[in-house]
Design a protein that fits this description.
mainly alpha
């Protein structure tokens, strides 16, 4: 009987120890499950944030691409304007050259006409002096 009581006490002791270990295991398991759940929530938040950032940087990349295209178009327009200005300057220079040439030819023609009139008047009015003989 005493052995039986000892065995029952031993079984009760082991049983209570098993129950205690079981409770500790369940508590530890619950703690780990909570940690896993928290990590999954953080992971979901990070995924959401990553998607937001990807969208943002896609927009940034698109804006940078459009900016580059606009800058290239602006360079092309400026180059065309530069060529157009050079063409206009050249045309204006040619027109000035033509105008000055016509104006100067008219002026030379008038000067020649005046010069001929003055020569004609001198020849008709004046008496030629005899040339002196050389001794």
């Amino acid at each position: 009987v005493e052995q039986e009581n000892c065995m029952k006490a031993s079984i009760d002791s082991v049983s209570s120890e098993i129950q205690q270990l079981s409770r500790e295991f369940e508590a530890e398991l619950k703690k780990k499950e909570d940690e896993i759940e928290e990590m999954q929530l953080r992971l979901e938040k990070q995924k959401t944030r990553r998607k937001e950032l990807e969208k943002h940087f896609q927009k940034v990349d698109k804006n940078n691409f459009e900016k580059q295209q606009e800058e290239n178009a602006l360079k092309a327009v400026l180059e065309l304007e530069k060529k157009a200005m050079a063409l206009l300057d050249n045309g204006a220079t040619q027109m000035q050259k033509l105008y000055r040439g016509v104006r100067d030819r008219k002026l030379v023609k008038k000067l020649k006409a005046k010069s001929k009139k003055k020569r004609g008047k001198k020849k008709g009015k004046g008496v030629k002096a005899p040339k002196a003989k050389k001794k």
